Input
Amino acid sequence: MNARWRLVLLGLACLVLMPCAVSAIRAMPDFGADIAAYGARINAIAPAERHVANMVSAINFDIRGLDTLGEEFMLLAAITGTVVLLRGSRGEAITDRAARLPGRPVLPRAEVVVLACRIAGPITALFGLYVVLHATVTPGGGFQGGVILASATLLIYLGEGYAGWRDSVRSRWLDAMEGGGALLFVLCGLAPMLVGAAFMENVLPLGTFRDLFSGGLMLVENLGVAAAVTGGFTQLFLEFMEETREPDQSDDPKGEDA
Amino acid sequence: MSAILALLLLLTAASGTAVVLIREPRRQVFAIGLNGLILTVLFTALQAPDVALSELAVGTAAVPLLFVVALSAVRTASPSQSADPGDHTKSPEDA
Output
């Protein structure tokens, strides 16, 4: 298909789709208009019936929990696919030792970088845990906290080097966290059916409004999402970085702090 | 719409255009990170802290890092071909 036919196709598509887009855009509410009806309804329901202060978590884990379950498995499938692609050439042989490409320069890092990472890493991890645990109270939740936790492990990489990072992050643990988190979410859906409730119905005690322990089943689902996201994203980083190294060249003790 | 919102929207448009116009991949990574940071501030100004947190974590930390690592992997694979990184637009398929 050459450039002229592409332009013709673009013109035809614009002719059909542009009126639809214009009519849809004209029907949108004005910028900064009042909260939509759905938002007002959620604001009324969530604190009263779920004892939850963070409406986004209430929607994600309870009111539209089934959608989040689907997203959870989309994430699982995407990361599994990426890992399969990246491991393609070297197979399933994963090692916990840091591999190093021969001839790759070992860049020395300044002491101030190491110090900054050793200070910022634990603080970042603590903040990630805070965001995960306070999902039903303050903005954030399993996904955001999970990505923050995963980036906290990256500060280990920046401060201690690749070998130090691989010493502290185990690939099989990450697999277990990713799969186990998704499994926990599914079990949260199925467990209420054992006591005769609907799929993912919130049967646990709801706790106190604005308390850390509020929201009942949402807290468990949130932990599942946090584990899956932390494991998944760290696994993704690990596989991408492993891609820049070759696994069978690791018998070089001088390169251990690469 | 207040002045700060207008400013942030303009900055978002400018930084998004910059990501497209910068052709050197490694600089593009930083442009993406900056765009993510501006989007984070914009979402915060629009009172969407949840989305802002996600954007901050994914848009300014995870995505740029994956690009940096992928770029370094490409450079490791073929050091002889990476001498002229701006030349990839002239591939024979475009003729």
